[in-house]
């Protein structure tokens, strides 16, 4: 496990790490988890150490971000992707992090400017930030498990998903299933680099795989205490 990890939620981080590690061996991606709480307490956003993580282009973009939460997420996302990429390329040192630009494209999806043949995906749910890197299409999403609003279910879920949720409305698994479907939708939208431009209401995520033209996409999900995490991977 790499990145800034620790604190009272270490067990949660370990479980997430173990699940991602298992899937990384199957699907051939690398990842990193950043604990944004630890990152924030380090004071790195207000110190010169930020130049050890970010490139000039990334710092220029960071200066445009005024909200502290968004600044923290931006830095954590870049750091996570660079750590994941370092492991992917089997690089031993972090000294070249300032030479790598993890930027946001017109589609809002992150990309590694100097290595655009690689796919990068970033997700946040405080205190966790996860970055993944692969040579195939991939998307990742993590969310805190909560009881979703009825309007969310009505407008963004398929009829099949709604029916399954209806059958377990009074059970503990309702919120878990609802967030599983949501994180899967988010992961697929990131895989396609569509963000919220994807029509979630026609994307049925009740199965663990689906075929789109000549591509098969597999979906994996994991419940870790109060969090749900999903990945969508091209196979």
Task: Describe the fold and architecture.
This protein is α+β, with helices and mostly antiparallel strands. It has two domains: 10-134, Ribosomal Protein L22, Chain A, CATH 3.90.470; 142-234, 4'-phosphopantetheinyl transferase domain (Ribosomal Protein L22, Chain A). It is 37% helix and 24% strand. It has helices spanning 10-27, 36-41, 56-62, 68-88, 150-156, 159-166, 173-191; strands at 29-35, 102-104, 110-112, 119-125, 128-134, 138-144, 209-212, 215-224, 227-234. Strands 6-9-8-7 form a four-stranded antiparallel β-sheet. Strands 1-5-4 form a three-stranded antiparallel β-sheet. The longest helix has 21 residues, at 68-88. The protein is globular, with a radius of gyration of 18 Å. Mean pLDDT is 91; it is low at 1-7.
Strands ordered across the widest β-sheet: 6-9-8-7
Q: CATH topology of the largest domain, what is it called?
A: Ribosomal Protein L22, Chain A
According to DSSP, the number of beta strands is 9
For the sheet with most strands, the description reads:
4 strands, antiparallel
> Could you state the order of secondary-structure elements as H and E?
HEHHHEEEEEHHHEEE
Report the top-level CATH class of the largest domain. Alpha Beta
Q: Extract low-pLDDT stretches.
A: 1-7
Question: Into which percent range does the helicity of residues fall?
Answer: 25-40%
Shape: globular
CA radius of gyration = 18 Å
Give the averaged pLDDT, no decimals.
91
């Amino acid at each position: 496990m790499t990145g800034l990890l620790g604190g009272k939620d270490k067990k949660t981080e370990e479980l997430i790490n173990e699940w991602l590690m298992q899937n990384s061996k199957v699907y051939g991606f690398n990842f990193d988890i950043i604990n944004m709480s630890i990152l924030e307490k380090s004071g790195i956003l207000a110190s010169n150490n930020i130049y050890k993580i970010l490139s000039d282009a990334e710092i220029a973009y960071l200066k445009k971000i005024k909200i502290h939460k968004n600044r923290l997420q931006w830095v954590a996302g870049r750091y996570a992707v660079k750590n994941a990429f370092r492991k992917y390329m089997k690089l031993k040192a972090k000294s070249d992090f300032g030479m790598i630009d993890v930027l946001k494209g017109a589609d809002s999806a992150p990309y590694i400017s100097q290595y655009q043949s690689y796919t990068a995906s970033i997700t946040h749910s405080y205190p966790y930030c996860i970055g993944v890197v692969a040579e195939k299409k991939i998307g990742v999403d993590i969310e805190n498990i909560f009881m979703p609003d009825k309007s969310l279910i009505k407008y963004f879920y398929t009829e099949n998903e709604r029916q399954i949720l209806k059958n377990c409305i009074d059970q503990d698994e309702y919120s878990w299933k609802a967030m599983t479907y949501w994180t899967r939708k988010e992961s697929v939208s990131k895989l396609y680099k569509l963000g919220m431009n994807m029509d979630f209401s026609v994307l049925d995520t009740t199965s663990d795989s689906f075929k789109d033209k000549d591509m098969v996409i597999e979906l994996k999900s994991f419940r870790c205490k109060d969090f749900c995490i999903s990945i969508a991977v091209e196979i």
